[in-house]
């Protein structure tokens, strides 16, 4: 029983519910326990690369810090005893608690999100959405096409750089390439749109009608999916209770 | 809703979503770095970027649902490429898409002038701000600061998404790649 095997649609719903719940809680302890709890659950019931986890986490550490000081400096007036003054704003104990809550909320959101992102295979998620979520096959298969487009777009982009180089545009450093990118977006999109039209034609030529269809891969719903979901909800329940206490 | 859609229109929608998902993600990282320095307000003035696919898709395809679907798809693809905003981003996509869609629905899906596109950018700003208010806990901030945030986001939505989306689409139209879509037909009717 791991988060990797969990039914993606159920995982998606649980995780979303958990984050919604967090948004209505205004004490720092709940997001903190959720954050720690998620880390424990993740190390028990999944095998992910923690290095990758860390890399994803770093930018949100910045956001959390930004949130922390913004809430201190631009916090609303709460009344009560003033602890200290920061850049002309009187900071009360309540302001500090609020700032800690919001900063920890950013971290908890990120941990919960990564629990989903790092353990979910996109293809399985789409299949599951089609099978359990009644997602239209027209949309589902268009998303698959979209995915197939990544290498094509990359290839076209390289080709565009080469054409521009042939015309005498010298781009040497990586920064030059990034600066030049806006000039390529129109030709890149125009090429992509033409490709999209051809792909749609060939899908129809192969008999794709957009009706519900037999699938090769069946994503099941099992009892352990509900077990994992209740584990996550239990974590939230305990954290909320700890926060109130 | 999808009955009246041709497959090529849906595939176009998916492709636009893929391209803009990459752009969106790039700007999430730009925003994040900024946000460490100047706080969540860092995202506000560039927020219009995250509405642009709605406006472009609706302007080109001109069918009910284009603004909403494109934004939701772009968000889903962003999530699947892998980022730490995770599944929440799909919710954001739905909320932003609905805001933009509202502007086209109000005008009966018949007008796609610049002011309607700007209204769509504004609509997306309104709904997405409501979401930020709840999830980001903006109630903890002083009302003046929150008002500044909203003003920045609304302006950005109207200018970057509304005006920018139209400029980008019109440039695309000039390449001839959009011949088979509603936007090209519209042009011909008016000469």
Strands, helices and their partners?
The complex is a heterodimer of chains A (245) and B (191).
Chain A: H1 8-23, H2 29-45, H3 50-73, E1 82-86, E2 89-92, H4 93-117, H5 122-131, H6 137-166, H7 174-180, H8 185-205, H9 223-244
Antiparallel strand pairs in A: 1-2
Chain B: H1 7-38, H2 52-61, H3 66-82, H4 88-106, H5 114-135, H6 143-175, H7 182-189
CATH hierarchy class name of chain B: Mainly Alpha
What is the gyration radius of chain B calculated from CA atoms? 16 Å
Q: Major sheet of chain A: order of its strands?
A: 1-2
Q: Note the overall shape of chain A.
A: flat
- Assigned CATH architecture of chain B: Orthogonal Bundle
Low-confidence stretches of chain B: none
- What share of the residues of chain B does DSSP label as strand, in percent? under 5%
Notes on the protein architecture:
The complex is a heterodimer of chains A (245) and B (191). Chain A has 245 residues and is mainly alpha-helical. Chain A folds into two domains: 8-121 and 220-244, no CATH class; 137-205, no CATH class. Chain A has helices at 8-23, 29-45, 50-73, 93-117, 122-131, 137-166, 174-180, 185-205, 223-244, and strands at 82-86, 89-92. In chain A, strands 1-2 form a two-stranded antiparallel sheet. In chain A, a hairpin with a 2-residue loop joins strand 1 (82-86) and strand 2. In chain A, helix 1 packs parallel to helix 9 and helix 6 (137-166) crosses helix 8 (185-205). Chain A starts with 7 loop residues before the first helix and ends with a helix. Chain B has one domain (2-183): Orthogonal Bundle (Arp2/3 complex 21 kDa subunit ARPC3), CATH 1.10.1760. In chain B, helix 2 (52-61) packs across helix 3 (66-82), helix 2 (52-61) runs parallel beside helix 6 (143-175) and helix 3 runs antiparallel to helix 4 (88-106). Helix content of chain B is 74%, strand content 0%. Chain B is built from seven helices and no strands. Chain B has 191 residues and is mainly alpha-helical. Chain B has helices spanning 7-38, 52-61, 66-82, 88-106, 114-135, 143-175, 182-189. Classes of the chains: A mainly alpha (245), B mainly alpha (191). At the A-B interface, helix 1, helix 3, helix 4, helix 6 and helix 8 of A face helix 1, helix 3 and helix 6 of B.
């Amino acid at each position: 029983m791991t988060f990797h095997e969990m039914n993606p649609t159920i995982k998606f719903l649980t995780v979303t519910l958990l984050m919604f719940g967090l948004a209505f809680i205004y004490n720092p302890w709940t997001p903190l326990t959720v954050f720690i709890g998620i880390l424990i659950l993740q190390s028990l019931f999944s095998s992910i690369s923690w290095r990758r986890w860390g890399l994803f986490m770093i930018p949100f550490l910045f956001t959390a810090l930004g949130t922390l000081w913004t809430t201190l400096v631009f916090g609303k007036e709460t009344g009560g005893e003033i602890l200290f003054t920061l850049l002309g704003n009187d900071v009360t104990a309540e302001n500090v608690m609020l700032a800690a809550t919001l900063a920890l909320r950013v971290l908890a959101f990120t941990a919960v999100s990564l629990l989903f992102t790092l353990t979910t295979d996109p293809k399985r998620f789409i299949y599951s959405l089609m099978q359990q979520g009644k997602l239209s096959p027209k949309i589902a298969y268009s998303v698959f096409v979209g995915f197939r487009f990544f290498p094509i777009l990359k290839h076209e982009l390289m080709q565009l750089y080469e054409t521009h180089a042939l015309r005498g545009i010298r781009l040497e450093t990586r920064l030059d390439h990034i600066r030049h990118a806006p000039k390529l977006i129109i030709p890149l999109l125009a090429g992509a749109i033409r490709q999209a039209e051809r792909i749609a034609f060939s899908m129809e030529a192969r008999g794709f009608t957009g009706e519900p269809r037999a699938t090769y891969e069946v994503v099941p719903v099992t009892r352990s999916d509900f077990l994992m979901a209740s584990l996550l909800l239990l974590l939230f329940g305990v954290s909320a209770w700890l926060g109130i206490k | 809703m999808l009955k009246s859609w041709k497959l090529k229109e849906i595939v176009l929608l998916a492709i636009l979503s893929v391209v803009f998902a990459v752009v969106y993600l790039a700007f999430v990282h730009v925003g994040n770095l900024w946000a460490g320095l100047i706080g969540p307000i860092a995202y506000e003035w560039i927020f219009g970027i995250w509405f642009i696919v709605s406006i472009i898709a609706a302007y080109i395809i001109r069918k009910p649902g284009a603004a909403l679907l494109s934004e939701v798809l772009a968000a889903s693809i962003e999530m699947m490429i892998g980022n730490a905003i995770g599944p929440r981003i799909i919710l954001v996509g739905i909320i932003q898409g609905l805001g933009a869609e509202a502007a086209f629905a109000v005008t009966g899906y018949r007008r796609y002038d610049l002011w309607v596109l700007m209204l769509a950018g504004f609509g997306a700003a309104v709904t997405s701000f409501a979401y930020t208010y709840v999830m980001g806990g903006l109630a903890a901030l002083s009302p003046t600061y929150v008002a500044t945030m909203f003003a920045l986001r609304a302006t950005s939505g109207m200018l970057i998404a509304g005006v920018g989306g139209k400029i980008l689409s019109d440039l695309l139209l000039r390449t001839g790649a959009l011949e088979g879509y509603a936007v090209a037909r519209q042009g011909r009717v008016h000469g």
